[in-house]
Amino acid sequence: MKLAFITVLGFSEGIVVGSGIVALLTLLDIIPRLCQITNSYQYLAKYEYMLIFGAFFGSLFSLTNVSFNFGSICLILFGGFYGIFIGMLASALAEAVDVIPVMQRRLNIQGMVKYIITVLIIGKTVGSIVCWTILK
Amino acid sequence: MEIYLKPRKNLKFEKKIKDLRLEDLFYIYPSQNEELVKDIVVAHVNGVNKDYDVIELGDVISRINNQNSYVKVNFLEFDDLLVHFDNPKKDNLLFVRVLFVCTILFLGAGMAIINFHSDVDMTKSHKTILRILTGSETKNLLFFQIAYSLGIGSGVAVFYNKVLPNFSKSEPSPLELEVSTFKNEVQSYIIENNKQ
User: Fold this and answer.
1) Which chain A residues are closer than 8 Å to B136 by Cβ?
2) B6 phi and psi, to 5 degrees?
3) What is the pLDDT of residue B169?
4) Which residues contact A128 (CB under 8 A, 6 or more apart)?
5) Minimum distance, in Å, between the CA of residue A118 and any CA atom of chain B
6) Where is the chain membrane-spanning (chain A) (predicted)?
7) Which of residues 123-152 of B touch A (CB under 8 A)?
8) In chain A, which residue's Cα lies nearest the Cα of B132?
């Protein structure tokens, strides 16, 4: 009885949390952008399933004590993929509040956006490396 | 004599095409007048190496009236047309790209959840909930957490109306809507900022 109640409670909590996380990912236009870059609009259904499984396994492995024994090459690969995802997430968040367009209008620098973006890229990369190496 | 023109959707042609005719770009109504105008060449795209071209409605009117000066042209939609050109060759890298995106999304979704759990210290709150319910913090914790993880998966599935209750036949998922609005924005941007 107690066990059944616990299970139902956990399941309902999970449904709310999952909907919330994915609503955020959908709102930020990351997936349409990826579809556009790779020209693979017809595989959208696969991407939705990937999000479902990713959320499920991420939650399961982080809460329980499951661990794998992958080598360092795998670490480099996965780190790269994580970095790409977080980079897109951060850029999409910054874009959602129209930072760069407003800067352009106020400072009157139309056509110079590519320099701003280049500097942003370098800054984010250097900042991340400094954060993990010097400030740890 | 009047004709009404409605633009076709998804205009894609091969790069080696020479002329775009009226019936390639538009549905022509009424159909009894179609024979008279359907072969009028609207644009010469001889040997393009562009990926797209914008056909302006004004040009279409001029071309039709050059051929047939007593036709009155009415458009049922007033946006210029965006025509894509591509080579019909097989795309071998598509599978690699799809795999790449799948990996990013799979790992990324997992990491978003893990980040969220660290933010709110989910393990601690789960233990608290379990203590309130059963009196012990660690006994049966795994039942709770596995059910919770399954719930997260189901939550995502419900949001995208996949798997359980499957509405995707009758209505699009939020992601499909988002993608189609994104595509429309890209198209209208290209039409507006078309500087050849």
Assistant:
1) none
2) -120, 125
3) 62
4) A83
5) 22
6) 6-31, 43-64, 70-94, 115-135
7) 123, 126, 129-130, 133-134, 140, 142-152
8) A6
- Say yes or no for a CB contact (<8 Å) between B113 and A11: no
Find chain A residues with C-beta within 8 A of B146's C-beta: 10, 60, 64
Q: What are the angstrom distances between the C-alpha of B116 and each of A63, A108, B45, B123? A: 12, 39, 53, 11
Q: Which of B103, B160, B183 sits opposite A81 (nearest CB)?
A: B103
Question: CB distance A82–B149 less than 8 Å?
Answer: no
pLDDT at B168: 54
Angle between helix A113-133 and helix A99-107 axes, rounded to 10 deg:
130
Q: What is the mean pLDDT of residues A77-104?
A: 81
What DSSP character marks residue B81?
E
Provide, as residue numbers in chain B, all residues whose Cβ is less than 8 Å from the Cβ of A56.
149-150, 152-153, 156
- Beta strands B81-86 and B12-14 are parallel
pLDDT of residue B167: 57
Q: Which residue has the tokens 């770009």?
A: B25
How does pLDDT run across A43-73, given as a tens digit for each residue? 888 898 898 898 888 888 888 877 788 878 8
pTM as predicted? 0.74
C-alpha B7, offset from chain centre: 18
What span, in angstroms and rounded, lies between the C-alpha atoms of A69 and A50? 23
Amino acid identity, position A1: M
Q: For A93-114, what is each residue's pLDDT tens digit?
A: 877 777 777 877 787 777 777 7
Cβ distance of B155 and A19 shorter than 8 Å: yes
C-alpha closest to that of B105 among A74, A125, A55: A55
Q: Would you say residue B75 has pLDDT above 70?
A: yes
Averaged pLDDT of chain B: 80
